[in-house]
């Protein structure tokens, strides 16, 4: 059963005790390069849209594998879904009617969708769609375009280990117990109907395991969905798999994916380092007490921020899995193993700095011995921390209406595109500079439009306000928003939904 849905990111239960597996949402592209579209009125379907927007996003619920990897898809909930009639016509019904389709992957990576009750195939063009074909032809073939934020962590289903860039070996290895630091971030790049895996240093994974500066035939993979998990098929019909002791990611010998060739994409939480007014980094190197006493950034000074969707408060977790927690007399230690009230902190964004309020209602301050304690009633210099986001060197932004991308024919930025541009993020004393691939910087023009051809950098302030979403604020205090015409503009007065961006 396929259903239409809106694009905000959804998550399932944690798969490895770390982060959440992303619920796979996608668009379907037919043989005429048009997207399947579910109209809001009358549950009507067509294949007329040239790009992936809200009405073109579908999802498939997890089901058991059938035959050659087909997945009966039956999502929960009361949303109307697609169902074929006996004569092949299509109509919208409630899920209780039992509409189910089996995904039948083809050798070129495309899908055929077969009605489970009637064994007919779904296809067609424009507004002439039906589920009547007894055999698979070009009109019955659909390419999958993932409709999720393309930056994630990759988990091997068989090894239960995470992928990360291993610069010493020049490869992507799957031997990480936790997805830690910038090297664990992978970016899915959609090019010509295939996906490439891009590392944090902007190199592309080739099917033989090498990392290349430019995409090519060997860096493109077709995605196959197997019982809710992903397999990556290369240009020769083989599948990516972890090999050897370090789990080097390369195409193996298998022409049919098994457990070794299956992966989960997991939500990539922001990871940060914090610096106090004394210039020292907050660390757990000295033990369980959270103290600012280090001069350099290592894994012991890196913490993962996990933001609660309801309260928007956050926790800070170490690489070893312990959370910061409030203890007696306002002390803060890294000893909690689960999220409870004392592990939650409320952040207040102050431009270049941030303040934290603990569950006792007190602000966190830096004591003279460097230890952090929640004992202050107001925010002064000792209560301000500099927070640096370390695992987004490549910035991809998606808002309510689509991705941020260079505007064709001008120096402005679109905020409603189905494709995205990759920008680089550079930290500067609590602020950030945003730069395009052409080396030019973002800046705000007098009209409020955000332009991308600046010769000198301009400061922007990032505010991690919701799970997976940030606000971007200018020096004058305005938030970046997409206007009704789809142009990125600095005119937001508050961090409302229109000013929050998936990153």
Automatic annotation (TrEMBL):
Keyword Transcription in annotation: no
InterPro entries xref list: Actin-crosslinking, Fascin, Fascin-like_dom, Fascin_metazoans
Any GO BP annotation: actin filament bundle assembly
Sequence ranges assigned to domain Fascin-like in this UniProt record: 153-265, 278-384, 401-503
Keywords annotated in UniProt: Actin-binding, Cytoplasm, Cytoskeleton
SUPFAM superfamilies linked to this entry: Actin-crosslinking proteins
GO cellular component, one term: actin cytoskeleton
Keyword Cytoplasm: yes
Localization per Swiss-Prot or TrEMBL: Cytoplasm, Cytoskeleton
GO molecular function annotation: actin filament binding; protein-macromolecule adaptor activity
Family statement: Belongs to the fascin family.
Name of the protein in question: Fascin
């Amino acid at each position: 059963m396929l259903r239409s849905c809106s694009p905000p990111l959804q998550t399932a239960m944690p798969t490895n005790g770390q982060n959440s597996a992303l619920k796979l949402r996608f668009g379907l592209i037919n043989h005429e390069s048009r997207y399947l579209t579910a109209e809001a009125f009358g549950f009507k379907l067509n294949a007329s849209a040239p790009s992936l927007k809200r009405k073109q996003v579908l999802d498939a619920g997890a089901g058991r594998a059938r035959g050659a990897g087909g997945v009966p898809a039956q999502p929960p909930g009361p949303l109307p879904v697609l169902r074929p009639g006996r004569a092949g016509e299509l109509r919208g019904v409630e899920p209780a009617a039992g509409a189910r389709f089996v995904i039948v992957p083809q050798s070129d990576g495309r899908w055929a969708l077969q009605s489970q009750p009637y064994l007919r195939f779904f296809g067609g063009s424009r507004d002439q769609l039906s589920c009547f074909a007894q055999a698979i032809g070009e009109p019955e073939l659909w390419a999958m375009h993932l409709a999720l934020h393309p930056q994630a962590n990759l988990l091997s289903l068989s090894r239960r280990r995470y992928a990360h860039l291993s610069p010493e070996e020049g490869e992507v290895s799957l031997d990480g117990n936790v997805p830690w630091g910038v090297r664990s971030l992978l970016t899915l790049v959609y090019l010509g109907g295939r996906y490439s895996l891009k590392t944090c240093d902007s190199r592309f994974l080739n099917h033989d395991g090498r990392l290349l500066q430019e995409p090519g035939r060997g860096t493109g993979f077709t995605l196959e969905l197997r019982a809710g998990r992903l397999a990556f098929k290369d240009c020769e019909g083989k599948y990516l798999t972890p090999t050897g002791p370090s789990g080097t990611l390369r195409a193996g010998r298998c022409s049919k994916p098994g457990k070794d060739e299956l992966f989960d994409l997991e939500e990539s939480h922001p990871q940060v380092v914090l610096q106090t007014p004394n210039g020292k980094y907050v660390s757990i190197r000295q033990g369980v007490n959270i103290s600012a006493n280090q001069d350099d950034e290592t894994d012991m000074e890196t913490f993962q921020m996990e933001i609660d969707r309801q309260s928007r408060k956050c926790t800070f977790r170490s690489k070893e899995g312990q959370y910061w927690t409030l203890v007696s007399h306002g002390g803060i230690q890294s000893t909690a193993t689960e999220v409870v009230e004392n592990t939650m902190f409320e952040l207040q964004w102050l431009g270049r700095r941030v303040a934290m309020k603990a569950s006792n209602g007190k602000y966190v301050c830096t004591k003279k011995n460097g230890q952090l304690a929640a004992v202050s009633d107001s925010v002064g210099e000792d209560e301000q921390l500099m927070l640096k986001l370390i695992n987004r060197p490549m910035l991809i932004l998606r808002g309510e209406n689509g991705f941020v991308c260079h505007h064709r024919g001008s120096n402005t930025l679109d905020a409603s595109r189905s494709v995205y541009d990759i920008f680089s993020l550079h930290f500067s004393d609590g602020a950030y500079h945003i730069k395009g691939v052409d080396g030019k910087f973002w800046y705000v023009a007098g009209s409020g439009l955000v332009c991308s051809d600046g010769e000198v950098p301009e400061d922007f302030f990032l505010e991690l306000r919701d799970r997976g979403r940030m606000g971007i604020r200018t020096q004058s205090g305005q938030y970046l928003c997409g206007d009704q015409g789809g142009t990125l503009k600095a005119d937001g007065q508050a961090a409302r939904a229109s000013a929050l961006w998936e990153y």
